[in-house]
Hints:
Helices cover 34% and strands 19% of the residues. By secondary structure, the protein is α+β, with helices and mostly antiparallel strands.
Amino acid sequence: MSRIGKTETFELKVGHILAGNKGDYLVEEFLGEGSYGKVAKCSKLWSQEYYAVKIMKISRAGRKEFETMKLIQDLDPDENHLIKMYECFTCRSMTCIVYELLKVNVHDFLMNEEQLVRLCFIRVITQQLLKALKALKSIGVAHCDIKLDNIMFADLDDMNVKLIDFGLAEEAKELSTRTRMQVTQFRAPEVILGLPLDESVDMWALGMVLASAFFTRENSDWRLCTPEEYTESTGEKVRRMNHVIDFDAITDQHRNMYQMHDDDDHKAFIDLLKRMLDVNPQSRITPSQALEHDFITMNPLTFGKPKGLYQRTSGSARAQTLKSYQIYMKARDHKNIYKPTKEL
């Protein structure tokens, strides 16, 4: 092990020790790497604590992220589903930000699931992320980079998620057409058109995240079977979708084809999605309004239950929804609808 001081030049490797302000951190493994630098899993010496340390090669970017994190420190990170920052220090020209160590991002989680994504799972994470957006809006901050990779599980057992990576975050009053934000597929219309911007760009991106989780399975190793292939492997006939011409038709086909959710559940989700994906940012649903939407407030999603049995949620609704999700995900298996790409 070698200790890296605050003024030494170094090439970071496993086994190096980073000298922080509140302790020293041993690099155990690297969790990710990008143009910004690296994220390392580190253990704090003389303790049993583990952290995710983001090491940025560009000090200006590191300082900007740190300043943004300071803005949200007054928000309860656990209550508002935001990643928790512990400290920031420098090693030579590197900026190191110490974050809580989370489990797995939602993108990787979904790619490891054999089943189609269920509304009960989507509702659990939607409610939490709306709380995060509501908290950020309350202090005038826009995340500007919401995507599946930037939503991570703090606890897989209760489906507790947190919003991470504030590297592109900005105060809403500072947003401009020159602001770098959002991956292309989740980019809000007003960003593309160069119109005035505010926190509502995050609501659009969240809507796109939920739509992509519900309607698609972005795994490059697989493709959807053709109707003929599906019939051959399952013995079930499936209708073609050549006549699909609008969003409602797509969602109806998706629900009917896979015998999905109770109609009230499905309609509530689609209605919320439409409001989140309103092309006019002025009329787009806000986080506070979305938290009062029927999709969030109706009783836990159930399967095959008669319609008309929904009431407003009690304090235990989230736990009941989670239980329904866990039971249902174990009971259903849709692996036959996918086929290896090597057979193309």
